[in-house]
Design goal:
elongated
Length: about 250
């Protein structure tokens, strides 16, 4: 009976440790966060990519564990091999890595891809950064993480620095295209107005220079015939008439 009881207790303990997909490989090393807070200046900013709780919902731990692990790796690379800060940071990297291995890799990758547009990259001061790590590890111990969450519409990506930069570039392109259209149009309008205003003066100038004239202003040509030529023609006509009468008589 005693042997059977021990075996059952062993099986029960094994099942209890392995039960649930989201184990809690969190140890008392969490207290080392306070040591890191003291060793790193309070105004030092640490970049991290994350999704807020109000966006991620129950997937908050699942979606943020790997980006936080990468952020800690970058932070550890700033310290020397003999630095105690680097040793403490490596402890949390191993802690997050063990926690990540309790999740299904394919489901984790798929969830991160679905929420990809909601990731925000910010630089947190050291105090807020280590508080964020503590909150995430504490939430992981509660066993409330899951993959059964749907992302909201992708609207928050424009709030990130990358989204704001893309938005500014797009706005500049729109303004440039509008200027390319307005400048020729404005030039055409100015040219038409100038021609309309300068039209009467051009007509008056051409008229004064004799380039255009009305029909009433057509010049007349006079021909003068000498008086002696007219008298000679009359004498010739009279002599011709006298000869004609003499022949007929």
């Amino acid at each position: 009976i005693i042997s059977t009881t021990c075996v059952l207790l062993g099986l029960f303990s094994s099942l209890h440790l392995c039960s649930g997909k989201f184990g809690t490989p969190i140890t008392d090393d969490v207290s080392k966060l306070s040591i890191l807070k003291q060793n790193i200046p309070t105004d030092y900013e640490i970049p991290v990519s994350y999704i807020p709780k109000e966006v991620a919902g129950t997937c908050w731990v699942v979606l943020n564990i790997y980006p936080l692990e990468e952020s800690l790796r970058n932070l550890a690379s700033l310290f020397g091999a003999m630095s105690s800060n680097k040793d403490n940071i490596i402890v949390f990297i191993a802690m997050l890595k063990s926690l990540r291995f309790t999740f299904d890799h394919e489901e984790l990758e798929e969830a991160m891809q679905v929420f990809q547009c909601h990731y925000q990259k910010k630089s947190l001061v050291s105090g807020l950064y280590f508080d964020y790590i503590q909150d995430l590890l504490h939430a992981a111990t509660q066993g409330t993480s899951s993959f059964s969450c749907k992302p909201p519409p992708c609207l928050n990506h424009q709030q990130t620095p990358e989204g704001q930069e893309e938005s500014r570039k797009y706005s500049w392109l729109k303004r440039s295209a509008l200027l390319l259209v307005l400048i020729p149009f404005t030039a055409c309008v100015v040219l038409i107005v100038w021609q309309v205003k300068s039209g009467p003066s051009l007509v008056a100038c051409k008229t004064s220079n004799g380039q255009t004239a009305s029909p009433d202003m057509i010049p007349t040509v006079s021909v003068s015939i000498p008086l002696q030529a007219l008298t000679h023609a009359a004498d010739c006509q009279a002599t011709g008439e006298a000869i004609s009468e003499h022949e007929s008589g």
